[in-house]
Predict the 3D structure of the following.
Amino acid sequence: MTVVRNIQVKLDVPADAHSVLDATFEQFREAAQYVADYGWADDPCDITTDQRVLNAATYDEVRAQTDLHSNHVQSARRLAAEALANSQDRLFEGATTSKPTFRGSVVVYGHRTITYNDEHCTLATVDGRVRADYVTPADETGTPFEEYWDREEWERKEATLHKRNGEYYLHVAIEKEPETDVSTVENGVVLGVDLNVDGSLAVTSTGQFLGNADLLNHKRREYERRRGRLQQTGTRSAHLTIQRVGNRFGRWSDDYLHRVSKAIVQEARQHDCAAIAFEDLTNICERISSASKFQQWAFRTIQQYTEYKAEEHGILVATVAPAYTSQRCSHSTCGFTHEHNRDGDEFECLECGKELHADYNAARNIGWRLLQGWHTSGPGGADCQVALKSGTLHANGEFTPATDTGGQSGSPLTSPPL
Ligand SMILES: [Zn+2]
């Protein structure tokens, strides 16, 4: 993965440019607040976090009300969407929080609103561009400037402009390509993981059924019913009970998702996997119409926790395009794809007759898809494999049986208590 660092650079802004930068701060703040106001709702399920929905609903108004560069309008919207999503997560976790409020002086700059030159940058404002010189230490020895700023391998990316005590500072994200040899990962074994709104929460390409989505949904509904009853009561003590019940549910669900993620990483380690593949969750609303905001949050959280835990063991977490993973036959080189292959939990290939649990089949396809991406894009990816229940499947469709059954031991979450 790309290495990212942040560096703070003081800017020398000409005095006559201060007012236009200050106006940019204020209009950027107003734009973010306008989007947050639009997206906010008291019920976390009704908070709008979808970037496209927010964009469609607010872009024209914000453009009309401000003189911001169109990319600043986008950045302000993205900032508001992230703040809304964070608030929503906290509410789902049972914490109390209120509508995001934007204060202070911050503007987000991207490649179309900032240009980095050797000694200065130019910044888009509400009235044209402003030039600002970098103020770097006279002696850069041992500073981040020596280490990152002046080194060509570090690329300057997005930045945020801040104003403190009358001075302007740029916080710049700088990126470097990793030094670790990605080709070793791309020759490794992949664990595919399918996440589900019912049945088992996560199913792996090695045939592990982890966690219980029905239990999670059941607990969530129980919590919502109880909250509804208490809200009708409307007393102060009922309000406090709502908080307590919410906190308890939040802790329980958070812990549950942690355990599922841990079991996924354990499974990857048992099979010596170099990578774990999930489906890309963008546009999940459209794909799984029955997926509630809560289930989407649960999926997102599992992926985040898994990535966090996998990193410690040097295991890569990647996502693949979700199309047809449930309709494609994952058996050997078959690959026959048809919507009638799947009937609920059962998968039976209309071409080769292979029968598999539908989620297990999907998990194998998810692993397979990452493998194919590596195989076609990376040099020397020919030996990458998907970890299956009893062996590994190579990119060319060949199957290698496992030499030992070390990966078959049950996981603590295989049969969760209900
Ligand atoms: Zn088939």
